[in-house]
Write a structure and sequence with these properties.
Its cofactor is Mg(2+). One of its GO terms (molecular function) is phosphoenolpyruvate carboxylase activity. Forms oxaloacetate, a four-carbon dicarboxylic acid source for the tricarboxylic acid cycle. The protein is mostly helical. It is 62% helix and 6% strand. The strands form 2 sheets. A 9-stranded parallel β-sheet has the order 3-2-1-11-10-9-8-5-4. A two-stranded antiparallel sheet has the order 6-7. Helix 9 crosses helix 25 and helix 10 packs antiparallel against helix 12. The protein is globular.
């Protein structure tokens, strides 16, 4: 019998019981799920689930071969219906455990604040205090916030598209769980329990995933749900908090602070504009994305304006108003005599009417609350902001300042941040497509018969010559390839979108696989062909609407990055365009492909070197560098804690400018809870602030040892690169092993997401997209891209020394870990990956490889390297336990793995069934559904596998 009457206590920050509320919440949600399972599926299924869980625990803890055989036999005997029920049970537990953990993070943070503890590391107040104590003046801080751009960019993910129904149910469960921390009467406690039970039951009866092929439109809607949950309110709220923090740390003489009006945190998106390898993205999807963006933000503005109209009942019979406010009220379509003395309400009724007209003009089709009368649409978001500021100024000058902060200031702030476009949509396409399109245009205009055959030097000369010509290559009277028409239509759509929704709606064009200077010039020429790059031919003055951003991805690309940018920035036309961009140029670095190309250690090192080289060359050119970090969820794809990652960036690479991708289950993990979401946004701001302004500390690494550390890292990288490449690209049969021992084939077959898993229809690892590559290794619990090669590199490097020199090398590695943030962060991320790696589970997936000799040969290589890596990590850090420095995460992993492991065992069984059916050219939709559910459940359980 559950005890509903006693609320869990918010425990103090110290003591062995600080995780007791978390354990209680997990037990509570587990019991409720078990009750629902019994009610919905019967005791037989519940007993099967429990038996599988217990056997799985025995397999994990005791490495019991008998348990493995028992589990295998048990899973084979499950009927198709039972299999789906069991997979769903363990998948839902992963989701419920995530909710409990998020609530515990909130609980611990609040307990910390209630105790009056010092500002936590990772908070803006902590960063500001550190800067003030280091002597950084207030003016420098103000300048930072006026000039900064910090932009999380949401991207689609092929394996994680939560249905809104599931998100809503989980949001309710989180809210009800939070209520249990408040004092409740027995009756309230019972009511809370009943509601929790009902929401868990709703989850069970709701389809977790979409089973029709996902479209780009589905992915757009999924991303927009996080704006409603988190970004629309929490981002403006964070701005208010930061102003309070600045006032507290740097108080003015009169105790006031001027508001920071710059939108230094802005949202970005790739969903609907990223066409690299995705044939489903075109001009129509871009237009649809912006229409949905605009509808989402305007719905928010309409709701807030309506609420403000109800709240601001201020009467001129009681207090005066400004002339500007009175004029705004007089323009309102509201002529009711009942509100003749309520100018704020009348003004807001007029604002609402203008917002409604704007929403219709920008594509909204369903405005739920009709306006009082007709009004002209706003020409742009700035005009809307101006009206709101008129209201703010009038209130503040007529004893109404207290009425501004609750809603009005937040709405004005939101309008600054989100405009009418909500998020800037990036465009991305691979350089090969640009080359083909221009080859078509050149050939059919008679300018160059075979552009693709030209040397790089000749390509540059031709492109620069065409950029200097007033005429266009394109003619509406010539038939072009379908790809050419599509790409030109997309660029024309971008111009229309900017005119309709504002310049911030689309402002970046990213070039995948940038390898040469001509790759950038090609996009400039395509912009000229579509009116996005325009020149005054009398003055020679040019303007380009979209910043052309190279994406350097592979190891060779990263090594060439600085040289390419130096050449490009030296060109007179590009110099002029960069000046128009505020003497700023963005460069994107790809973590995913560089990892797949060269392995974990080499990828990180080459990224580090590329950043240093870019900083140096940009400083010489007098151009400000903004780096865009293409990070994924996995450590192998640049994942890991964002705060530490930003602080570990090489000196001079942040400077108040940073963009980074957020994707997959990482978006859900960070932003599906409003309070957790605000904390994650604050971490980005705090890290960027600290990395940009904190004086470089005087430590041995920066006083001479850094050069030694970098020299060692170069040697280690070379050794790790060869170990990784030898396994992945040079070992006969490795590709067959990978496609058999991971669910990559099922991920590709099930069409999870709108983008194909591979760039080409083959089984070459070179052509496989980096997301499914890393994701597959996560599913089978090896997470190989996050550690392979490290052990071999360290072991070989130490052995290369003689006698006592071996001890010197070990001491050097330990010094690198203690004194170099880059190396410490690298090892910390690898430590987390190794904590989530499980060879016992991975061995079950290895059994899927039919060729026993191949299986044993490759698997032994992997497990040997795993052992080497663990030993070397322990040698350097001195920690024999994983996550010794992060006990909360260590406990989290242990809490959930007893429920996560069965999903892996079930996935193996379902893969066996699916492949057996495929061999007979048969399909079983229930097996497909089970695999998809297991993929979602494992990803949710690991929380950063995408």
């Amino acid at each position: 019998m559950l005890n509903d009457a006693v609320a869990p206590e918010i425990v103090p920050a110290t003591g062995s019981d600080k995780d007791a509320p978390l354990k209680e919440d997990i037990r509570l949600l587990g019991r409720l799920l078990g009750d629902v399972l019994r009610e919905q599926e019967g005791d037989a299924v519940f007993n099967v689930v429990e038996t599988i869980r217990q056997t799985s625990v025995r397999f994990r803890r005791e490495a019991d071969a008998g348990a493995a055989l028992e589990l295998d036999a048990m899973l084979k005997e499950l009927s198709r219906e039972q299999t789906i029920s069991v997979v769903r049970a363990f998948s839902y537990f992963s989701h419920l455990a995530n909710i409990a953990e998020d609530q515990h993070h909130i609980r611990r943070r609040r307990a910390h604040l209630l105790a009056g503890s010092p500002a936590q590391k990772g908070s803006v107040s902590f960063a500001l205090r550190k800067l003030r104590l280091a002597g950084v003046p207030r003016k420098t801080v103000d300048t930072f916030f006026q000039d900064a751009l910090i932009a999380p960019v949401l991207t689609a993910h092929p394996t994680e598209v939560q249905r809104k129904s599931i998100l809503d149910a989980e949001h309710d469960i989180a809210r009800l769980l939070a209520e249990r921390d408040l004092p409740q009467t027995p009756k309230e406690r019972h009511a809370n329990m009943q509601l929790l039970r009902s929401r868990v039951a709703t989850l069970w009866q709701t389809r977790m995933l979409r089973y029709s092929k996902l479209t780009v439109a589905d992915e757009i809607e999924n991303a927009l749900s996080y704006y409603r949950i988190t970004f629309l309110r929490e981002l403006p709220g964070l701005y208010d908090d930061i102003e309070d923090d600045i006032a507290a740390e740097y108080p003015n003489g009169d105790g006031t602070i001027e508001p920071i009006n710059a939108a230094y945190v802005q949202m970005g998106s790739w969903i609907g504009g990223d066409r690299d390898g995705n044939p489903n993205v075109n001009a129509g999807t871009m237009q649809h994305a912006l229409a949905r963006h605009a509808t989402t933000i305007l719905d928010f503005y309409l709701d807030e304006a309506h609420a403000l109209g109800a709240e601001l009942s201020v009467s001129t019979l009681m207090v005066g108003v400004s002339a500007e406010l009175q004029a705004l009220a007089d323009q309102s379509p509201d002529a009711s005599p009942h509100r003749s003395d309520e100018p704020y309400r009348r003004a807001l009724i007029g604002i609402y009417a203008r917002l409604a007209a704007t929403a219709r003009a920008l594509g909204a089709t369903n405005i739920l609350r009709k306006e009082v009368g007709a009004a002209a649409a706003y020409p742009d978001a700035a005009a809307f902001v101006a009206d709101l500021r008129t209201i703010v100024a009038s209130l503040e000058s007529h004893h109404g300042a207290a009425l501004v902060r609750p809603r009005l200031a937040t709405l004005a702030r939101a309008a600054d941040i989100f405009g009418f476009h909500l998020a800037s949509l990036d465009m991305r396409q691979t350089s090969d497509v640009h080359e083909r399109v221009l080859a078509d245009l050149f050939a059919k205009s008679g300018v160059a018969a075979d552009y693709t055959a030209l040397s790089e030097e000749d390509k540059q000369a031709l492109l620069l010559n065409e950029l200097a010509q007033p005429r266009l290559l394109y003619s509406p009277y010539i038939a072009y390839a379908a790809e050419t028409d599509s790409e030109l239509a997309i660029l024309r759509a971008a111009r229309d979108i900017r005119q309709r929704y504002g310049a911030r709606a689309i402002r970046n064009y990213i070039i995948s696989h940038t390898e040469t200077v001509s790759d950038l010039l090609e996009v400039l020429l395509l912009q000229k062909e579509t009116g996005l790059l325009r020149t005054d031919w009398q003055t020679g003055d040019s303007i380009c609407e979209l910043m052309v951003i190279p994406l350097f991805e592979t190891i060779p690309d990263l090594q060439r990055a600085a040289g390419i940018m130096s050449q490009v920035m030296a060109l007179p036309l590009v110099k002029q365009l960069i000046a128009k961009q505020g003497q700023l140029q963005e460069v994107m670095l790809g973590y995913s492909d560089s990892n797949k190309d060269g392995g974990f250690l080499t990828s990180n090192w080459e990224l580090y070197k590329a950043e240093l080289a870019l900083v140096s060359d940009f400083q010489k050119a007098g151009v400000k560098l903004r780096l865009f970090h293409g990070r994924g969820g996995t450590v192998g794809r640049g994942g890991g804690p964002s705060y530490e990652a930003i602080l570990a960036q090489p000196p001079g690479t942040v400077n108040g400018q940073i963009r980074l991708t957020e994707q997959g289950e990482i978006i859900a993990s960070k932003f599906s809870n409003a309070e957790i979401g605000r904390r994650n946004l604050e971490l980005l701001v705090a890290a960027t602030l600290e990395a940009s302004l904190a004086p470089q500390e005087a430590n041995p690494a920066r006083n001479g040892q850094l050069a030694q550390f970098e020299a060692v890292m170069a040697q280690l990288s070379d050794l790790a690169y060869h170990a990784y490449r030898h396994l992945v690209y040079e070992t006969p049969g490795f590709t067959e092993y990978f496609f058999s021992a991971t669910p990559i084939a099922e991920i590709a077959e099930l069409n999870l997401g709108s983008r194909p898993a591979s760039r080409k229809a083959n089984q070459r690892i070179e052509d496989l997209r980096a997301i499914p590559w890393g994701f597959s290794w996560g599913q089978c619990r090896l997470l190989l891209p996050g550690w392979f090669g490290f052990g071999s590199a360290i072991e070989t490097w130490i052995k290369q020394a003689d006698g006592a020199a071996k001890d010197d090398r070990i001491a050097t590695l330990r010094a690198m870990y203690a004194e170099w943030p880059f190396f410490a962060t690298l090892l910390s991320n690898m430590d987390m990956v190794l904590a989530k790696t499980d060879l016992a589970i991975a061995s079950r997936y290895a059994e899927l490889v039919a060729d026993q000799g191949l299986r044993e040969r490759i698997y032994k290589r992997i497990t040997d390297e795993h052992g080497n890596t663990l030993r070397c990590l322990e040698l350097i850090t001195g920690n024999t336990e994983r996550l010794a420095g992060n006990p909360l995460l260590a406990r989290s992993i242990q809490n959930r793995f007893a429920y996560l492991d069965p999903l892996n065992h079930l996935q193996v069984e379902l893969i066996k069934r699916n492949r057996a059916l495929s061999a007979e050219s048969r399909i079983d939709e229930r097996v497909h559904r089970g695999i998809q559910l297991s993929i979602n459940g494992v990803a949710a359980g690991l929380r950063n596998t995408g």
